[in-house]
Amino acid sequence: MHYKHTQIGHVTIPAGLVGLAVVYYSFMAEYGELGIFGLALMGFFAALTVLFATLTTEIAGRTFQFYFGPGFWTREFLLEDIRSAEVVRNAVWHGWGIRYIFHGWLYNVSGLWAVELDIRGEGTIRVGTDEPEALKEALDRALQTA
To answer: What is the pLDDT of residue 34?
Structure first.
């Protein structure tokens, strides 16, 4: 069983670009130049934009893994440790990125849909996706053969 999908951060990319623009125009309006602190802030927002631009979910072999951007913050779990997978809708105030919410850890780059996993030894996590039904079906198939 193999499944791989990359969700584009339709929220995180524009947010990062807005952050870049705000830093740039704030420093230029105030000082007429960016200076070292302005460049550092712009670098920070650029790095965040790249790191959280996408969220890839993958089922390969006996594992389920997901990661942000070019492999940042990779999490990997054995399929045999996943007790259940359910499609859930996050509340708007849960936000995006990596955060702890009432239901457990949330990993998300855009949208409100996620797959909630109950993982042995880890608890509950939610992985955001724009294909929640396809990810759940792939996990269900993989869990049957694990």
So the answer is: 87
Residue 98 class from Cβ within 10 Å (0-12 exposed, 13-18 middle, 19+ buried)?
middle
Between 12-31 and 35-51, two packed helices, what is the crossing angle to 10 degrees? 170
The list of the chain residues with pLDDT below 70 reads: 1, 146
SS3 assignment for 24-44: HHHHHHHHCCCHHHHHHHHHH
Q: Which amino acid belongs to residue 75?
A: R
pLDDT at site 145: 84
Q: What is the pLDDT of residue 72?
A: 82
Give the separation between CA 41 and CA 141, rounded to whole angstroms: 45
Long-range pairs of 62-71 with CB within 8 A, sequence gap ≥ 24: 62/146, 64/117, 64/139, 64/142, 66/107, 66/127, 68/98, 68/107, 68/109
